Amino acid sequence: MYADLQGKVVIITGAATGIGKAIAKRFAEEKCKVVINYFSEEENPEELLKEIEQGGGTASIIQGDVTKEADVEAFVKFAHDTYGSLDIYVNNAGIENEVPTERLSLEDWNKVLNTNLTGTFLGCREAAEYMLKNDIKGSIINISSVHEIIPWPHFVHYAASKGGVKLLMESLALEFAPDGIRVNNIAPGAIDTPINAEKFSDPEKKKGVEKLIPLGYIGEPGQIASCAAFLASEQAGYVTGTTLIADGGMTKYPGFQAGKG
Q1: Which residues pair with 38 in a beta bridge?
Q2: Which residue from 157, 209, 215, 250 has the fewest beta carbons nearer than 10 Å?
Q3: In this structure, are residues 169 and 141 in contact, taking their beta carbons and an 8 Å threshold?
């Protein structure tokens, strides 16, 4: 736990499920005031809100689309109007779909790039603008992916979006460092989330993924949430412009493990 996080105001996009949900719960446990963004009613954000409040935490929910400029502006205004500040912004919302590149439509390309890259840009911009205007030495955290490093055939739009998020983060970290605003990425590897539920329910497919992970197991959303809490805290006060890779070693060429290759 990080005592300096108590009372901080945090926005988390795409927070009703998966990694975003775990991050929201962790920041609530840290006694932050949590703004839960969700996209669709199907995500049932009220369930998470109730869970946080029953645990003694403070949270509010706001619906919105991270690809829409007005919606992202509204997230920041909502945080200010509800809690009087914004200290931490977590760009978590993201999508993916598998399509062989020769059949990848411009519509699918734009949908993934707009959500994963443009949505992250809008969140970073609005958070930074608020922090600059209010002299807040805040933290912006982007949930990227190991595919900001690892190529991924049939997911070129996803990999391109995450590669973009890497250089977006690094550029913004340089730009805002003199103002005390830290910008970092977290790059999860294979995590047991609803988006992966079908794949990991198949024992053979799950085993195939585990072979790509030197530690030998699929990660949990709470492990990514722990990374987010650390990066937002003063314990990471000297950390900016960095991708914290949480992948069980997936990016370390597992085929060469045990001297192979």
Answers
A1: 63
A2: 215
A3: no
